[in-house]
Design goal:
This protein is an alpha+beta fold. It is about 35% helix and about 20% strand. The strands form five sheets. It has a seven-stranded antiparallel β-sheet, sandwiched between helices. β8 and β9 form a beta hairpin.
Length: about 500
């Protein structure tokens, strides 16, 4: 369906498309501007396919200078800009605007330097996540954050969404593994945030940019931290007779003082789909399984693996397998990494949610999700980063059946509100985009939203960068019913247009 931003979030201009395209073409390489309808279609959405919008124009710069020139032209003309990486995002953060420029950064795809001594890589935003580790492997190093889409997603998009991955429990999200970024503001000014040291002077604006979803600036260069490849890694596969037992085991592992590199949850629907697709050797009769990976020095790993196995069995695991070699370890993870595409074999469509809750409430929240699914008449398959409480319920539906898409969206919204009620948040790693913008009204108070908008205005006074995403306007929240309107006026009336 097309996306229509709230009236308070729209940027309006009256430019004629052909005339503005003629202004942009000299600023870009040959073929670097797409204006024809057939060329615009592939950019109509990111990984969130429930909402689509054909862009006004698409720019494909190849240099930082070209990015700067395009931004300055758009700034002068009042044309909004939506930055985009590989388009693998799952919240509509790169959803185009009907009257705006989609700025694709995939052609800025060079690894500029690998510094094995300081264990850093300097890269452009269009570099694929996996390519960094492949380039660093010759030095015995790798880049830790590993989203399931790492074969395709770009590091610029990872910064925008603060992406995680199956090993973020021990090694952190993107924000914990980025040392510096260079970004261009909407008027083309260059800012370098962060540095090569352990700490820097002033406010931590680097952390602010990670997860800012393209609202503050366009990232054109990133310095990431590289880690030594662990000498040994072992993965435990634990099968449980119930979802509740597996959820409780997650808390037991952490309470035991263990810090796994990864701790992942899969329910029976996901187990069966992944096994049929990948043949990873999963126990298809298990109600749930956990993948628990330990890495480090051989002696440490063997000791931790033994402790973890004992905890898992005490928590109710009916079977625990330990990977015997690297091939088996990779096979265990292959099923988890392929879980999303595997679900495509059992459902016509699926809608992937992303919310985070306290680990101790995993079993309770999974039970509430099951109740909501039954109430909405849809099935939900669960696969998620259990160690940090980051849920990814997959809502199964058939868009060809009248009303099922709408039911899927309503169920997704209800799941997010359950996460908020449990003391969690509406996102763990996929960002807010347009998918969760109404639930932001539930999570945050007017004063907090006002501060978010104040930060946005400090970087982008005209509000031209990715408008209508991530931060809801106060009028939107009032219409959604999440803000109290007193005598016809919103709180913070000076922000009514934001």
């Amino acid at each position: 369906m097309p996306y229509r931003p709230h009236a308070s979030e729209r940027v309006v201009h009256t430019l004629e498309r052909a005339a503005f395209a003629a202004r942009l073409r000299p600023l870009l390489p040959p073929g670097g501007l797409i204006a024809e309808p057939e060329g615009l279609g592939p950019y109509a959405c990111d990984g969130l396919t429930l909402i689509q919008q054909r862009p006004w124009l698409v720019a494909l710069p190849e240099t930082v200078g070209q990015v700067r020139d395009v931004l300055r032209a758009c700034h002068a003309a009042g044309v909004p800009v939506v930055p985009r990486g590989a388009g693998t995002g799952l919240s509509g953060g790169a959803l185009p605007l009907a009257n705006g420029l989609l700025l694709s950064l995939v052609r800025l795809n060079r690894i500029l330097a690998i510094d094995p001594v300081n264990r850093t890589a300097r890269v452009q935003p269009g570099v694929r996540n996996l390519s960094i580790s492949e380039a660093a492997a010759a030095h015995g190093l790798y880049y830790a954050p590993d989203p399931s889409s790492q074969i395709a997603c770009t590091i610029g998009g990872n910064v925008a969404e603060n992406a995680g991955g199956v090993h973020c429990l021990k090694y952190g999200l993107t924000v914990h593994n980025v040392l510096a970024v260079t970004l261009l503001t909407m008027d083309g000014e260059s800012l370098t945030l962060g540095g090569s040291g352990l700490d820097g002077p002033g406010l931590d604006l680097l952390a602010l940019v990670c997860g800012s979803e393209g609202l503050l600036g366009v990232v054109v260069e990133i310095v990431v931290r590289l880690l030594p490849c662990p000498p040994v890694a072992r993965t435990l596969l634990a099968a449980f007779p119930s979802i509740e037992a597996a959820g409780a085991a997650v808390a037991d592992i952490i309470a035991a003082g263990l810090v796994p590199a990864g701790l992942e949850f899969m329910d029976n629907a996901i187990i069966r789909a992944a096994e049929d697709f990948i043949h990873a050797g999963y126990p298809v009769d298990a109600a749930a399984l956990l993948l628990c990976e330990l890495d480090g020095l051989p002696e440490q790993v063997e000791g931790d693996a033994a402790r973890a196995e004992a905890v898992l069995r005490a928590s109710g695991a009916v079977e625990v397998r330990r990977s015997g070699d690297e091939a088996e370890r990779r096979r265990f993870w292959a099923g988890r990494k392929a879980a999303f595409p595997a679900v495509g074999r059992i459902a016509a469509d699926y809608y992937c949610m992303d919310g985070t809750i306290p680990r101790r409430r995993l079993a309770e929240v999974l039970g509430r999700i099951a109740e909501l699914a039954q109430r909405h008449g849809l099935a939900v398959a669960n696969v998620f980063h259990a160690g940090d409480g980051n849920l990814h319920p997959l809502i199964l539906f058939d868009a060809g059946r009248p009303g099922e898409r709408e039911q899927a969206e309503a169920l997704g919204a209800a799941i997010l509100e359950v996460c908020i009620d449990a003391g969690g948040t509406v996102t763990g790693e996929h960002g807010v985009g347009v998918e969760k913008i109404d639930q932001m009204c539930v999570q945050f108070a007017p004063a907090e939203l006002a501060q978010f908008h104040a930060v946005k205005r400090a970087f982008d006074p005209a509000g031209l960068l990715n408008p209508g995403k991530a931060i809801p306007s106060l009028p939107r929240c009032a219409e959604f019913g999440a803000l109290h309107v007193h005598r016809g006026r919103l709180p913070h009336p000076e922000l009514e247009r934001f």
